[in-house]
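Duplicate of #3305? Posting structure anyway:
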């Protein structure tokens, strides 16, 4: 082999290594982007759901003064859970759905009590809103192996465009 041939082979090895590094980096970046995209999507789903539930609970809190504090809480919780069912598209009952709603109830109770200015851990063990939601999210993921926020994955079906 000539020194020119050895030189070209050396350049080929350098080029191949650079290409391998680029491919590995692109794969790593794609994984990281997908993770960040998922975190962003879940954060917005969390914010949008909780905002809707706060509005529902607050509306019921204002009405609750007429029916008594305990009844007001029950009405607010029922209203918020009904809204959650609507948001998830649940029109029927089932074991998984019932368990989810039952385990989400402390979150709604914390929202209700937080809307009354009481967002600390209460004597009956209801934690603050963020803690309650975190416990629910952990429970759901352990129970079903996926994030609760995956329930809000709504692929948009392709619809034909019709020009009139």
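Output from current build:
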């Amino acid at each position: 082999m000539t020194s020119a041939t050895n030189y070209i082979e050396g350049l080929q090895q350098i080029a191949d290594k650079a290409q391998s590094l680029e491919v590995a980096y692109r794969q790593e970046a794609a994984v990281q982007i997908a993770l960040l995209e998922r975190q962003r999507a879940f954060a917005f789903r969390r914010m949008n759901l909780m905002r809707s539930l706060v509005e529902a609970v607050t509306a019921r809190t204002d009405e609750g003064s007429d029916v008594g504090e305990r009844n007001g809480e029950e009405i607010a919780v029922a209203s918020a859970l009904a809204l959650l069912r609507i948001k998830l598209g649940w029109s029927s009952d089932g074991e998984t759905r019932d368990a989810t709603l039952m385990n989400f109830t402390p979150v709604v109770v914390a929202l209700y009590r937080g809307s009354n200015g009481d967002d600390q851990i209460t004597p009956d063990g209801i934690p603050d809103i963020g803690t309650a939601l975190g416990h629910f999210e952990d429970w759901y993921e352990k129970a079903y192996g996926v994030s609760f926020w995956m329930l809000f994955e709504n692929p948009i079906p392709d619809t034909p465009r019709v020009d009139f």
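Confirmed duplicate; merging threads. Helices lie at 3-64, 69-88, 95-115, 129-144. The first helix runs from residue 3 to 64.
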